[in-house]
Amino acid sequence: MQQRHFEKRKRGRPLKDRRKHLQIAATIDYRGTDDDVLTFVFRGAGQQLITKVFQYLVGHSHGIAREAVVTEEHDIIRRNGKGYWRIAAEIHDPNYHFASLDDMQLLIEATLHRLHPCTVHWMPIEKFLNV
Question: Residue 114 in contact with residue 106, Cβ under 8 Å?
């Protein structure tokens, strides 16, 4: 007689998405010699995800900016003996006729939600650096 092996089912509603839910901290920073480079800084998201977001939002230079450069930079946070990384997206020539700064935040958050299940916490730069 052949035995059937059944997988143990987990209780509750099935998951909508099996990917891990991300907690993303984000802030706005102005960099450059004259504080003229608009930069969005993220902690808790991967570089690939942020790159996809800004490729979608910039498009062929007809979106929120002419160009976006996504870089990985060392974070000042050290926990459990590990150093952490944050992702910075520099926006060159932002198109304020297309979207204001608040609208850009909404567009970035909506695109992040579309690409990956996440919660985005926007905070001032002082709080972001000390969290």
Answer: no
